[in-house]
Design a protein that fits this description.
single chain; alpha/beta; D-Maltodextrin-Binding Protein, domain 2; Arc Repressor Mutant, subunit A; 3 domains; 7-stranded mixed sheet; 17 helices
Length: about 450
């Protein structure tokens, strides 16, 4: 059909207008979708550093975003100490952490485990839903059993590390070894676990406590020679490829905070369970899978026994005659007891720095360590000293805010500033420093 040139021109204009209108409509739809889309934040325990945590967990965040319509998922690396502030400030909706950390936080914040991790084990090409602790020594060490650890130097991660200390503590207790009384020294080295292995290899300590499987993983990466080490009290379990010194406990949970909407919680649960589909897991690059949550009751009982024993040990040390209790023992136990009580009732304070008990030489070394913070502590303002005094007494953010008549956000600002100005590393280490230097009672001392 032939149209006049003028009519043809009108058609071209109309088509152009329609195209523009369609484009604008699509842009508006995209904009509307972006505005209505919501973001859920997943806290992940960065036990090997933030960069490693982001690399490990981003495929899971992307997978959840692709499979739950209208939602994006953002990772928030946390430490054993920083997660408390993230929860109180409502900055995370979900949390992936170790089981011991989870049960302590759940007691305070009513978290619920909606799934249990099935960690990929390269050595057996299988997924594992349980794990244990390994107590390691050098291959040529004369130590042959857990009982031989008495009078020896032992390194671990932190008093709050479940796989990196508490499981091994329980196993040692069962065989008559009290880690806080019978060892020559107990050294907490902080993350990463690799440092404990290195300390054993350098003969700085006689034994080290690590998460079971780490030896085999590092050997597979070519970082260590597996034959250079032995695992004490070695136990084997059907279908479990790693040597451990303890029973096995449920793997890390994927936990939801009580503020999470029911529909979102169920959508996340369904997506996690669908990770069991090999095709879906391969498509999204998921090495670890998720299953229905296992029971964490045995974990809860172990942590409860540990906290009670820690408090009792510290109390006994304080009440004992001075000549029978070295000053370093009192200092270490006081710090550990404070961390234990605070974690169970109001917060979670990991002692990520070195804490040793033992000889007078260790006491002198520790005193020198604390003295280096003297000038930094003197730089604190009156308000900062006030807040530090409350922290040392075991109060959490909201209680401090109420006591001082300020907002929780202001308290959190000062807590962050305290760590920055003192360069203490962790809040628990700052509490130790403050206690030793006399800054633990507010503005009156120091």
């Amino acid at each position: 059909m032939h149209f006049p040139k003028r009519f043809t021109g009108v058609l071209v204009v109309l088509c152009a207008l329609l195209a523009i209108g369609e484009s604008l409509a699509q842009t508006a739809a995209d904009s509307s979708q972006a505005e209505t889309g919501r973001t859920a934040h997943i806290g992940v325990l960065a036990y090997r550093g933030n960069a490693a945590a982001m690399a490990e967990w981003w495929p899971l965040a992307a997978y959840l975003g692709d499979n739950i319509e209208g939602w994006a998922f953002k990772l928030v690396p946390v430490s054993l100490s920083s997660v408390q502030a993230e929860i109180e400030a409502d900055r995370i909706d979900f949390l992936i952490t170790n089981p011991g950390h989870y049960v302590a936080l759940a007691a305070q914040h009513d978290l619920s485990a909606i799934a249990t991790r099935e960690r990929w084990a390269e050595i057996s090409r299988s997924h594992l839903s349980r794990f244990g602790s390994a107590i390691i020594v050098a291959r040529d060490s004369p130590i042959a059993s857990l009982n031989d650890l008495k009078g020896r130097k032992v390194a671990a991660i932190s008093p709050e590390a479940f796989g990196g200390f508490q499981i091994a503590w329980s196993q040692m207790q069962k065989q008559g070894v009290d880690a806080f009384r019978d060892l020559a020294s107990l050294r907490f080295m902080g993350f990463p676990h690799d440092e404990v292995i290195a300390a054993v290899a350098r003969k700085e300590v006689d034994a080290g406590i690590i998460r079971g499987g780490l030896l085999e993983i590092l050997a597979g990466e070519g970082k260590i020679d597996l034959t250079d080490f032995r695992v004490l009290n070695a136990q084997k379990f059907d279908g479990f490829p790693y040597l451990v010194s303890s029973p096995l406990y449920a793997e890390w949970p994927f936990a939801a905070l009580p503020s999470v909407d029911k529909e979102l919680r169920e959508q996340v649960l369904m997506a996690l369970l669908k990770s069991q589909d090999p095709g879906l897991a391969a498509k999204h690059g998921l090495r670890d899978l998720w299953s229905a949550p296992l029971s964490y009751e045995s974990t809860r009982k172990l942590v409860g026994r540990y906290q009670q024993r820690l408090a009792a040990t510290a109390a006994a040390a304080v009440s004992a005659p001075a000549p029978l209790v070295p000053l370093t023992v009192l200092a270490a136990l006081a710090a550990l007891a404070l961390a234990a009580v605070y974690s169970w009732r109001g917060g979670f304070l990991p002692v990520g720095q070195v804490a040793e008990t033992g000889s007078r030489a260790a006491a002198d070394s520790q005193t020198a360590e604390f003295r280096q913070y003297e000038d930094r502590m003197k730089s604190l303002t009156v308000r900062e000293r006030e807040i530090l005094g409350h922290i040392c007494s075991g109060k959490q953010t909201r209680a401090i805010a109420k006591a001082l008549g300020i907002s929780p956000k202001t308290v959190e600002f000062h807590r962050t500033n305290l760590l920055h100005k003192t360069d203490a590393g962790t809040m628990a280490h700052l509490v130790q420093i403050a206690t030793r230097l006399g800054y633990d009672q507010g503005v009156s001392l120091g």
